[in-house]
Design brief:
Elements (H helix, E strand, L loop, with lengths): L10 E6 L4 E6 L1 H21 L4 H18 L5 H9 L3 H11 L1
Antiparallel strand pairs: 1-2
This protein binds zinc ion.
C-alpha cells in the first residue's frame, strides 16, 4: 500500500503547541490497514484450512517461484539448491523473507 497520509513512514508529524515541538503520531491509515490485513489473514487461514496438503504445496511452490522470478535479479540457483537438499525450513524461511 502507498499511504498518502504518511508517505509510508508509519507516522505523521503533528505540532505540540504546549511544548513547541513536532510530535510523531502513529499513522491512523497505516494502523487501520494493518488491522484489516490481520483480520483478513485469520479469515483466509480458516477458509484455506480445508485444502489438501498437495494443493497447498502446489500453491506455495507457484507462489515462491513467482516471487523469485519477480526479483530484479532472480536467484533460481539458490532455490534449486534448497529443493535439491529438501531443505524445507530454509524454503519456508525464503518464502517468509520474500513476501
Ligand atoms: Zn500511513
Amino acid at each position: 500500500m502507498n499511504c498518502k497520509e504518511c508517505n509510508n513512514e508509519g507516522y505523521t508529524l503533528q505540532p505540540d503547541y504546549y511544548h513547541d515541538v513536532m510530535m510523531r503520531v502513529n499513522c491512523v491509515e497505516c494502523m487501520s490497514h494493518e488491522k484489516m490485513k490481520q483480520e483478513l489473514r485469520v479469515k483466509l487461514t480458516m477458509v484455506l484450512m480445508d485444502l489438501s496438503m498437495n494443493r497447498m504445496a502446489r500453491l506455495l511452490s507457484d507462489t515462491l517461484i513467482s516471487l523469485v522470478d519477480a526479483d530484479d535479479n532472480p536467484d533460481f540457483e539458490r532455490l534449486v539448491a534448497l529443493v535439491g537438499a529438501k531443505n524445507k525450513e530454509s524454503l519456508v524461511s525464503l518464502l517468509q523473507v520474500m513476501v
